[in-house]
Design goal:
It is built from 15 helices and three strands. It has about 270 residues and is mainly alpha-helical. The chain has a three-stranded antiparallel sheet. Helix 10 packs antiparallel against helix 11. One of its GO terms (cellular component) is nucleus.
Length: about 270
């Protein structure tokens, strides 16, 4: 099949929501793009800008296909391939998916607790002519920026309130991250609880972790090798770090402030209940 035929088939599969078929088409399409020197954009060559725009659209479809298939490593690879296209103003300004895709990538970094790379990516927006103020006002990009701020400040109640309700995100793909963000939030809370407290009532721990059932809380306790006796949870200071159990967790300096914020919210929940 020619590049044109493959592109038409890819677009049709994507529009129909047939991501599996679209995914299979992406490999031969990339091979064709390489043949025509279109996979790495440059305005120094004689390649028509329209061809580069079409290539960018193909890669954007590839990113969204990978994302909807939950293939996050492949999604990240497509973002890496797209960045050179986005750095060329003529190509970026034609894109309707630019802000959406990069905001999804930023949230992916948050779910992986990679705050260092998150901040590097934020700084890179200068290459696209966007300031921090521009990002904070953007419907898409303001979402990961707010989430990151709440994580750092320990305002987990704001994260929980948005993720536990039918919040209207600007695109449906944001909903895919709900569970991952909630789990990441709980890991941050657990990390700080273990450092600050020796013990806590089981019911309080359930509220602090924003869990609905005691059974869920007990499962969480088992995962962290804590002990629960007579309704009291004892935080064992084992040599196994939390990030060795659940993945890398960025250190948050002011643990006591974070736990204090969570406790206040937990107390408010208790009053409501």
């Amino acid at each position: 099949m020619s590049l044109e035929q493959l592109t038409v088939k890819l677009t049709e599969s994507f529009i129909q929501g047939d991501y599996e078929t679209a995914s299979k088409i992406l490999t031969p399409i990339k091979i064709e793009l390489i043949k025509y020197n279109l996979l790495v954009p440059t305005l120094q060559t004689r390649i028509d800008i329209k061809d580069l725009i079409i290539t960018r659209k193909i890669l954007e479809i590839g990113a969204l296909v990978s994302f909807n298939l939950r293939e996050m490593n492949e999604f990240a690879n497509f973002i890496t391939q797209l960045k050179p296209f986005y750095e060329i103003k003529q190509i970026r300004e034609e894109s309707k998916e630019f802000r959406k895709l990069l905001s999804l990538y930023l949230i992916l970094l948050l779910t992986q607790d990679d705050l260092a790379l998150f901040h590097i990516e934020i700084e890179n927006f200068q290459n696209y002519g966007m300031s921090v103020d521009d990002l904070e006002k953007d419907d898409f990009l303001s979402i990961p920026i707010n989430f990151e701020k709440w994580i750092i400040d320990g305002d987990f109640n704001k994260i929980y309130d948005i993720l536990s309700t039918e919040h209207k995100f600007p695109c449906s793909e944001f909903n895919i991250f709900k569970d991952e963000l909630l789990n990441s939030m709980r890991l941050n809370i657990a990390n700080n609880l273990e450092k600050v407290y020796k013990e806590l009532p089981l019911e309080n721990l359930k509220l602090l972790l924003f869990l609905k059932q005691i059974d869920e809380t007990k499962q969480f306790i088992e995962n962290f090798n804590w002990e629960c006796k007579n309704g009291i949870v004892y935080f064992n200071k084992s040599e196994t770090k939390l990030n060795e159990v659940f993945g890398i967790i960025e250190e948050i300096e002011d643990e006591k402030t974070i736990v204090k914020n969570a406790l206040i919210y937990a107390a408010e929940m208790e009053k409501i209940i």
